[in-house]
Amino acid sequence: MKLLQVENLKTTFHIDAGQVQAVRGISFHVEKGESIGIVGESGSGKSVSMLSLLKLLPDNATLTADNILFDGAQMVNTSQKAMRKMLGRDIGMIFQDPMTSLNPLFTVGEQIIEPLRIHQKLSKEAARQRAIEILRMVEIPSPEKRLKQYPHEFSGGMRQRVMIAIALSCSPKLLIADEPTTALDVTIQAQILDLMRDLKDKLNVSIVMITHDLGVIANMCNRIIVMYGGTIVEQGTTREIFYKPRHPYTWGLLRSIPQFTEGEKKKLISIPGSPPDLLRPPAGCAFTSRCPYAMKVCEKQPPQSVALSETHQAACWLMHPKAANHMREVIG
Ligand code: SF4
Ligand code: MG
């Protein structure tokens, strides 16, 4: 069963210099209880596409889509006001930096209890009990005491646990996590990912996890969507993306995962060059200027998405039957 279905989503920012085409027609879906990862460099459109769905865009942005179906309801024209009601109740969000999303002036307890009172109409005492229960669920020790403390009294990892608690407090159907572990050190990052994995199984919530690091989602997500230059260049099951990647950009991302062998960090290979200017998006494949396999056609025409299996699609001219001749020339 599909929880979220997005078809041909486009988001444009109108600035003095012109129009920035941040998201350029993406389509994907999320099944109930499934977790998907959206991966790409900064500026690839991953956060903007999620903010578009949630109607959290600034005034200078416009959004169009053929369909945004959430739990069967059409949301293309849902107002910001109606969306705000859904946020927290049907959809929870976790951001990169919990310090900016938590209010420093209120205790953690107040920040968990308030949404419970609003969305679930719980009494004060029932909301307090529920708050204790969810702090326990995210493995925060002595929750009764912790409820009375302020965000600055928590460590970075503990603050992110609080954010997860708030996001899950009203039992949402979908949890969107935007780089939830990027600001944390590696050990804490692993603990938070473990926690999210556990909670996903326990609560049967669907998760969309946004990250620039494929390594983060390897053990967490059922499927992966790879974004580049405001488009989806490849999507497939985690297995397909890791073992049968077909897009040169995905190959680059896989090479840039840090490898730890016997405590020694291997050299990280990053993809040379920089992402396209979406004020003037390229006519052809957005990856052309950085792609070692680029052909003449890549510059002129955008590649169509090709279905490689029921779950796996990629958009690259290399999959065209005639590309084999070109590859022979490149490899020699
Ligand atoms: Fe490279 Fe061309 Fe494929 Fe784009 S379409 S990724 S430029 S080979
Ligand atoms: Mg982002």
Automatic annotation (TrEMBL):
Pfam families per record: ABC_tran, oligo_HPY
Protein name: ABC transporter ATP-binding protein
Membrane association type: Peripheral membrane protein
Subcellular localization: Cell membrane
Keywords for this protein: ATP-binding, Cell membrane, Membrane, Nucleotide-binding, Transport
GO biological process: peptide transport
Record domain ABC transporter: where: 4-254
GO molecular function: ATP binding; ATP hydrolysis activity
SMART domains membership: AAA
Superkingdom of the source species: Bacteria
Keyword field contains Repeat: no
Matching SUPFAM superfamilies: P-loop containing nucleoside triphosphate hydrolases
